């Protein structure tokens, strides 16, 4: 039976490789077996008709790189207990895939992404807003390791992209959204105290709305 109660939306943001995913996964694991889903903003990069070499030059850390209207629309559908066809982004091709993933509505939605707090319409849909605050040096080291191992990118490519777009866009667009956060989490998923506080608050809201804990 589908609940008529409004799902809880938890927004988890921070810079690239800040530990957003670790925090989101830590919350997810605490509610293992419960009605919960993870929605990544990265899935909502815009489709581009540009040639591959031109797509590689796109500033993927700018708010305009995302199809925020589609993300807002599909999040609203989930809040109304409607299933969505979530887009799939192909990092190797630098473009949205033709595939989609069917996502059923759940009681708890974790929305994760670097710029989810930059858009007022998205912020208004969130019950809890979390900013994962991690030092720039740690983030670039994590990004190098991740992109070389899982995305097949060269060290020069990663460093150039970081210096030209990732770091300046973080300070221009991402870091200022910290002021909208209900909770700032230093150092990501290793901050167990912050994770425990989040889990306790989520359980409290679930109880208030008569949703299953």
TrEMBL record:
It is found in: Cytoplasm. It holds the Pfam family PRK. It catalyses: uridine + ATP = UMP + ADP + H(+); cytidine + ATP = CMP + ADP + H(+). InterPro entries: P-loop_NTPase (IPR027417), PRK/URK (IPR006083), Uridine_kinase (IPR026008), Uridine_kinase-like (IPR000764). It is an enzyme of class 2 (transferase). GO terms for biological process: CTP salvage; UMP salvage. One of its GO terms (cellular component) is cytoplasm. The keyword Hydrolase does not apply. It comes from the Bacteria. Gene3D superfamilies: P-loop containing nucleotide triphosphate hydrolases. NCBIfam families: PRK05480.1, udk. This is Uridine kinase. It comes from Lacticaseibacillus saniviri JCM 17471 = DSM 24301.
């Amino acid at each position: 039976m589908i609940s008529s109660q409004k799902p809880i939306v938890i927004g988890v943001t921070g810079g690239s490789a800040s530990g957003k995913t670790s925090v989101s996964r830590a919350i997810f694991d605490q509610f293992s077996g419960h009605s919960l889903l993870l929605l990544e903003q990265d899935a909502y990069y815009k489709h581009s008709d540009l040639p591959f070499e031109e797509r590689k030059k796109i500033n993927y850390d700018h708010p305009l790189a995302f199809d925020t209207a589609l993300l807002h629309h599909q999040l609203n559908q989930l809040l109304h207990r409607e299933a969505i066809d979530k887009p799939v982004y192909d990092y190797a091709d630098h473009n949205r895939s033709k595939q989609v993933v069917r996502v059923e509505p759940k009681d708890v939605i974790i929305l994760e992404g670097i710029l989810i707090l930059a858009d007022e319409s998205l912020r208004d849909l969130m019950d809890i807003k979390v900013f994962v605050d991690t030092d720039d040096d740690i983030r670039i080291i994590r990004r190098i390791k991740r992109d070389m191992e899982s995305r097949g990118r060269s060290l020069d490519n990663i460093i150039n992209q970081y210096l030209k777009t990732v770091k300046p866009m973080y300070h221009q667009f991402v870091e200022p959204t910290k002021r909208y956060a209900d909770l700032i989490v230093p150092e990501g998923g290793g901050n167990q105290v912050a994770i425990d506080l989040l889990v306790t608050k989520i359980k409290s809201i679930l109880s208030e709305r008569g949703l299953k804990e």
